[in-house]
User: Fold this.
Amino acid sequence: MTEPLVVLDHVDKWFGSLHVLQDIQLSIGRGEVVVVIGPSGSGKSTLCRAINRLETIDKGTISLDGQPLPQEGKQLAALRADVGMVFQSFNLFAHKTILENVTLGPIKVRKQSKADAEKRARELLDRVGVGHQADKYPAQLSGGQQQRVAIARALAMEPKVMLFDEPTSALDPEMISEVLEVMVDLARRGMTMVVVTHEMGFARTAADRVVFMSDGAIVEENTPEEFFTNPQSDRAKDFLGKILKH
Ligand SMILES: Nc1ncnc2c1ncn2[C@@H]1O[C@H](COP(=O)(O)OP(=O)(O)O)[C@@H](O)[C@H]1O
Ligand SMILES: [Mg+2]
Assistant:
């Protein structure tokens, strides 16, 4: 087996007395798509933020592509460029055009020329279906379109891995599928992805593995098929019972 791209080894984190990540062991292979699922407050966002070093950890190690996550400085900026992140809230720059939102990072961080960055940005915006909106401002786009721009913006940095933290949960129902379609396409193209979502359709279509978290720990992991049809732990059964009723 080739070396995994992201490795969390015995990771612990506390917020005060709250043990928010408990001895997390998780290896994500190159090109693998891992869906993280679990109740609110179980530590899913903290896990994602730790991989991006938006949160520090107290014990254990996290490595990306064979290197431990850098602590600070230039290496940390480079890490942020290598780990793309898409949040529930789209976080686009309101006073920049869609095109500028996508070219900013490549020009500033990746030191691309404006012309190269714009060419690549237009390709990515076309790929996510908003190429014709390039000169507009974020507020002129729907939530689904803005989230697709946020994905294009992250991809423009040529990340090694993409993290998605509930990317569709702030969207109106009719806009969810257009964002999920972009993510399914990305998975098919071989991107390594960690996706926090309760969208079981996405998990079944695109995930190689489902990781179920509860109270800061990984309680269960399995293929989507096995996990959804045959959960092992009481906590997973209870959780699936609740989300399936909706
Ligand atoms: N910065 C913080 N300070 C203190 N507690 C936090 C902080 N961020 C998250 N928490 C707590 O950590 C737990 C896990 O949060 P989170 O990772 O956001 O869970 P999830 O994404 O699964 O809903 C929750 O109890 C939350 O209230
Ligand atoms: Mg969360």
Summary: The longest helix spans residues 173-188. The CA atoms of residues 5 and 66 lie 7 Å apart. The first strand starts at residue 6 and ends at 15. The radius of gyration is 18 Å.
